[in-house]
Amino acid sequence: MAAPMFASGGEPPPEKRIVFLGDSITQAGRYIEIVEAALVAQYPESNKAIIPLGLSSETVSGLSEPGHAGGKFPRPDLHERLDRVLAKAKPDLVIACYGMNDGIYHPLDAKRTQAFRDGMIKLHEKVTATGARIIHLTPPVFDPVPIKAQVLPAGLETYKKPFEGYNGVLDAYSQWLLEMRSEKKWEVLDVHGAMNAALAEKRKTDPQFTFAKDGVHPSADGQLVIARVLLDAWCLKVKPDGTPDCESGSQILQSIQKKQAILKLAWLSHVGHKRPGVAAGLPMEEAEKKAAAFDTEARNLAKPKDSPASKCDSPSKPVLVFILAGQSNMEGHGFVAADPKRNGGKGSLEFAVKDPATAKKFAHLADKEGKWKSRDDVFISYLERSGPLTAGFGVNKDKIGPELGFGWVMGDACEQPILLIKCAWGGKSLSVDFRPPSSGKVPYSLGEKQDAAIAADPKILGKYYRETISIVKATLPKVKELVPGSDGKYELAGFAWHQGWNDRISDKFNAEYEANMVNFIRDVRKDLGAPALPFVIAETGMNGPEEKNVRALSLMKAQASAAAKPEFKGSVAFVPTQAMWRTQVQSPSGQGYHWNTNGETYYLIGEAMGEAMKELRKAK
What dotted CATH number matches 319-619? Predict the structure, then answer.
C-alpha cells in the first residue's frame, strides 16, 4: 500500500533523500531552490538531502524529433540513466516532471501518447520497486503567444518547428496523469493546471503576458508557479517573490542557490548521461563538502536569534566578491605619480589630487601628507599581487586601472567587506581570447597563420575566459586569508568588464561582439553558479564624443545592445565612458588606446562602473 502523499496536517514528506528528475525546466531548478529554501526556513533542524538530477532535452518516452539540436544529437532518454540514478542517489522519494519534450512538439498522436504513457509507467514501476515513493508533476505549459512567428499550424505532414497547439498535447498528457491518481493511486500534483490558470488570469489584463519567452522554459515567475504547487501541498510559506517568509529569507535562498549550483552538475557527472554540452561537475566528495557549507549557512540563518548554534560574539558578514576582467584597459595604464617630464604631470592621479580644479573630487584618495590612503574594508587580488585597495594596482605599481574608483564606490556603499578579484591581460579580444564556450568555434578565417595555430591547439580559443573562471574559483577558497577578519564566507556580488580595443580593429570581430558579449555573460553566470550575477560593461569610448571611426562606433553600439537585452533587464548595465576621455594635451601621453594613460580617466571609469553596480544591487 502506498504511503500517504503528505504527513498529517500537510507537512513536508518524511523521506530523507529526495531526488528531482525532469528536463531542462528541472535542470534550471529555480522551483527546487524555492522549495528547499522554504523547507530550510521552516524546518532548520531537518536533515533532508535535496538531489537535483534534471537533464536538459530529456524525455521519459524515449522519443526525439528528426534533426533535434540541428542534428547534433537526439534527445536523451531518462531510461538510459535511470538505473544509475536509483543506484547512486538512493532516493527515498522521487519527484518527476516530464511531458514537455515527450510529444516532440508535434500534434497529438496515438503512438507518441502511448510512448509517453509507457515511459511514465516504466519510471513509476522502477522507482517503487526500490521501495522509494514517487510523486509525478504534470508538465508546465507550452505558450505559442511569444513565438507566434516560429510555430506551425495543424494539418502538416512534417513539423520542423513546434506545433502551435502543442499545449493541447500537454493538456492530454496531464489529464492522463491525473486519471492515474484514481485508477492506480499514483501521487500526482497538477503543475499544468496551475500554470494554465495563472496564465489565463494574467492575460485578463495583459494579453501578451507570458511565463516563457521562448514558449517552453519558464521565467522566474513561471518557476515560482511550479514551486507553489509543492509549497501549497507541503504547507511551506514564501513571500510573493518566492523567498522564504522570514527575516533572513533572501539570504537563505541565496545560500541554497549556491548549494544547488554545485550539486546539480556534480550529480549529473556522477550519475552519467548522454547529453552533450553539459559542463562537468566537481567530484562528488568535493561537491558535497562545498555544498554542506552553504547548507549550514542557510540553516544557521533560519535558526531563532536565541539559538545557541547561531550566536557569535562578533558575527562576520560575508565578504562581497566582485570580479573585474578585461584586457589592457582593465589592467590599468593610468599614471599615479605626477612626473614633470610627462606633460608637466598633467593627467596623473597625483595631479588630479593637487590641482585646484579637481582636488575636491579626488582629495579623499590621499592623506594630509600626500600619501595614498589604503581602504581597510576593500581588498584586491590581482594575479601575483594582493592587499588593501590603494593606488598602484594597475598593470604595475606605478599605474591604476578602474579597480580604484570601482572599489572606492563599492566600499562606501556596502556594509560588508569587499574583495576585488582582477583578471586582466593586455591585447586580448573577446572574439578569440575571451571567447565564451557557448559561442563555439570562430565562423570565419583569422588568417592562415592563426588558423594553423588554432588547428594545432584549439584551446587558444577562449583561453582567457577559462583562465578568468579558473582564477576566480581558485581565489574564492582564500577569502579568509585575503580579507583580514573574515571567516571565509563570501557572496559573489558582481562582474565588471572593460575590454574592446582588440575587437574594434576587426570588422569580423565587431560583427559578432554583441552575440559574444551576451554569451559571455550567460556562460560566466553558469560556470560560477551565479545565475543572476550583476554585470556592468564599460564602453570602449576612447577618442571621446567626437569619435567618427565606423568600427569604434559599431563596437560601442554592440556593447550597449548586449546590456539592453530583455533577459538582462535589471541585472546588466552599460556604462558610457566617452565623457571621461582626456586629450593628449591633458594627459601623460598620446596612447589613445590606453586612454592616453590618464589616471583621472581610469579612476572616473571605475567610479562610473561602481555607481552602475550599486544601482544593480539595489534593484536586486
Answer: 3.40.50.1110
